[in-house]
Specification:
10 strands; about 20% strand; globular; about 170 residues; alpha+beta; three-stranded mixed β-sheet
Length: about 170
């Protein structure tokens, strides 16, 4: 490349690269993957687990699926058919957590606005507190990149967006 052109373009390219790096460092703490199916293995493993958001506040938002539950940043929350309500446990462990990070709270009483179902917490096997709605653990989908995304809806026929009353949104 001609050195005169590089002196003009180089600073612009550098600024773009720095901007991309800065933006990726300001993510919501979830690891985005390009996979669109959940891990079938729910056993523990030493694989990297996405960092969950901490002390999530549950609120509602309008979406193409109706009114749904989201966190205070507007990210969609999901329930998993393999979890059993009021069991006090999550069946999503190991590789599953890379794609489906838990909604984590620092306290036993997460703040809610517009959510009418019963909100609580369970203690996960790693001692973190996972938020529940009507006794079902709540999760993020790593494939949701922006506020309002609901790309985890129906994944594998077992992951569902959740309504404010705690019912899974089918369809």
């Amino acid at each position: 490349m001609n050195s005169t052109i590089w002196h003009k373009v180089g600073p612009v390219v550098g600024a773009v690269v720095l901007s991309v790096l800065a933006l990726t460092g300001c993510s919501q703490g979830t690891t985005t993957t390009t996979t669109t199916t959940p891990a079938a293995d729910t056993s523990s493993s030493s694989s990297e687990v996405a960092e969950p958001a901490v002390d999530a506040t549950l609120v509602t938002a309008d979406s193409g699926l109706g009114t749904i539950v989201v966190d205070n940043a507007g990210m969609t929350l999901y329930v998993f058919d393999k979890d059993v309500a009021d069991s006090g446990t999550s069946t999503c462990e190991g590789e599953c957590l890379v794609k489906w990070p838990p909604v984590v709270a620092e306290s036993d009483t997460p703040t809610v606005d517009g959510v009418t179902g019963t909100v609580g917490v369970i203690t996960r096997s790693d001692s973190t507190k996972q938020v529940t709605l009507n006794g079902l653990p709540l999760y993020y989908w790593a494939g949701d990149a922006a506020t309002g995304d609901t790309t985890g809806q129906g994944v594998g026929g077992v992951w569902w967006v959740v309504a404010p009353n705690g019912d899974k949104v089918a369809g």
